[in-house]
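Sequence in, structure out.
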Amino acid sequence: MSTEPRTPSSSPTDQPPTDASAPASQARAAQSAGKARRLRTEADKLEAFCVVVRAASAATDHAAFTEVSRAASKALKAKFGGGSITSVFAWLTSSAGKDALDSVLAGEVELTGPLSTEEIVEAVALAQKAELLRATQG
């Protein structure tokens, strides 16, 4: 017989509890990263669309507006796969456009383009006026 003291064998129940919140924490982090990507994409779209609205509103005649429209279509195709001035105005006045603007105003996402927050707000207001005019005349 051994004279050494016996040490109890460890069983699975003797192990310290694992952090059950780890999977939930990882899921929240992934969800947060997904939300950040979505907000960034929507803010980029908001900024690009507001640049188009500002250019369209600065057109002094039909020829200038047509040129802005062509340039906008090319730029929108390159950056977003397609689009037109009409779709830009419609998106800015939609719930998606409002949500993107609200996210910027709430500080959830920062602007990275050439326009200030005030210029974005002004461009959205111009888009809303234009859509209202289009709806009442069309």
